[in-house]
Structure formats: structure tokens, C-alpha cells
Amino acid sequence: MKFNKLVATSAFGLIASAGAAFASDCGSISIAEMNWASAELMANVDAIILEEGYGCDVELIPGATQTTFASMSEKGVPDIAPELWINAVATPLAAAKEEGSLVALNGGPITGLGEGWWITKKFKEDHPELDTVEKLLAHPELFPYVEDDAKGAFMGCPAGWGCQLINANLFRAYGMEDKGWVLVDPGSAAGLDGSIAKAVERDEPWFGYYWSPTSIIGKYELQMLPFEAEYAGNDNWNNCVALAEQDCLDPQPTSWIESEVESVVTDDFVAKAGPAADYFKARVYPGEVMNAMLVYMTDNQATGEDAAYEFLETQGDLWTQWVPADVAEKVKAGL
């Protein structure tokens, strides 16, 4: 395995100067290794497959959604963002796609992802009739609040998170206080995760906000509840639900905005990648597989590279569908 990880301060300059020096089948390729677990895993899997299977020379560049997108659109580096959550950059990304500088090779690299309201697997099995948010909201007595068991507890986001505002406004939109609910602030990410772990381990009900893919969803098998209400539009969401309460006087009931993730590449990558581009079009992680890999990373304190090798060694039936047989054999030999 020969791909390199560049420190953020030197990455762009090194790639620019070294590009001509590489001699390989698909040339010099740079991949964003973003700062969350699933993106780290995907970047490292991509790097191994491109190097071993397609003969590319790969550099991994540390990144995050905003900084990676800005660099790709302004400098053309890195070539690939494996897991770009596009809601945060929707308008400028659409413009870049229209002018042809950026291309979405895969509009759904992970299935089953998104934010929303979740319940435990046991609660779903015990109460199959409560299969939507609206049906469940009629039964706060099933989720007794520890400080007042006459009320139901809905676990929101810690203060300071963007989702705190969203959950607070949806709490108002659905009239949850009048229905007997309390919006609980978990205090921190650890508090939110701890509330889930405690509930599952004690076979107690839990209802609240979370997102996928995450190790928590994978480890505790939380189940997302669908909303009966349809998405009420971007104006309601962007100009009310996502804002502070004083700026959202009349939030309307709505389902959660769809979380969109794409594998985005530069036009330069499309031009030089050849058959390697087809790999990205085919590369889709089932949500349950991704969540299981995130559990592996958490339980074993594994890096993205560690997890990539674990994935390639244990999920051969999946990833070999993404590449031609001869490429798969090269990757296996490289492992």
C-alpha cells in the first residue's frame, strides 16, 4: 500500500508540484479524507482500490464539508470528495455542476442515511401500531420523563448544535407540549449517546433525535420513525424551522428535510480517470454495512485505514460488485 496522507498545510502545494512526476495507469489522484468516521473509511477504501486495482497514485487530504468544497471549486483539489453532504453547499454546488467544474458521479453512496426521530428496536417490536411520528405523539405516557413521569420525554440535541433549533421548532409545530411532552436537552454529545445506551441496556423506551450512518445507530439498532406529514417546503424549513425560535413564529408540521450525500469529483478527474470513474458510479454502501463498520471503528479505536482493510477483507461479496473481476483480483492480491 503506497498512498500518502498529506498534512493540511502542505497538501495542495505538494500535489500541484508532484503531479507530473507520477507514472501510473490513471495518474495522480487526490481524495478528501473528511473529519468523520464514515468519510474516513470511504476515502481509505477508495484509495486502496484506486491504487491496487487501477494503478493510480493516491494522496489523502484532510478535509471537512465547507473547506473541501471550497478548495475543489476554486482550486480543483482534491479530485474526489467521497461523502459530501450537499445540503450545506447546495447553491454553489449546483452552480459548479452547471458550469461543469464539478460532477456528481454517485448521487447515493450510502443507503438509509439521514437525520430524524428514532425509537428503540424493542419499542418498535412491542408497539408495531405506533409506526409514525404522529401516532407516537399521542402516547407520551409510554416515554415517562425522569423528572415528571406524567409527561413524556423527547430527547433533543445539545445546546449549540444546529439540530437543537430544528427540534425545538418541530416540537412547537407538532404541539408536543400541549400533548404532554417535554423537550429534553441531553447536555452534550456524550449525554445524548449515553441516554440511548442506558435505555437500550435497560430495555426502556427512548424517543429522540439522531442521525445515520453512525456507530450508535449500528450498535443499538435504533429505528427511524417516518412522518405522516410531507416535507412542507424549503421556505418553511430554511426560513423558519432551521432558525432560532424568535425568528420562526409559525413553524408548520413537516417531515425532516431529505439528507443528500453525493460522491463529487472534479472535471479533471473525469478526464483522466478512465475506467476508474465507473467504480465511483457503482460504489454504494448499504446503511447496515456502514453502521456495522462504524461500530467496528468505535469498538476497536480503528483508523479509517484500519477499517478500510477490515471492510475489504470481510465484505468481499459487496465491493467486488463495484469493480470488474480483474480489478478485484488485483485489489485482493494487494491486501
Looking at CATH, the homologous superfamily of the largest domain is Periplasmic binding protein-like II
- Quantity of strands, as a count: 12
The largest pleated sheet is described as: 3 strands, parallel
Question: Separation of termini?
Answer: 8 Å
Note the run of SSEs as H and E.
EHEHEHEHEEHHEEHEHEHEHEHHHHHH
In the CATH hierarchy, the third-tier topology of the largest domain is known as D-Maltodextrin-Binding Protein, domain 2
* CATH class categorisation of the largest domain: Alpha Beta
Give me the secondary-structure category.
Answer: alpha/beta
Task: Output the number of helix runs.
Answer: 16
Largest sheet strand order: 1-3-2
Helix percentage range: 40-55%
Overall mean pLDDT:
92
Q: Could you list the spans in which at least 5 consecutive residues all have pLDDT below 50?
A: 7-24
Gross morphology: globular
Proportion of residues in β-strands? 15-25%
Radius of gyration based on Cα positions = 22 Å
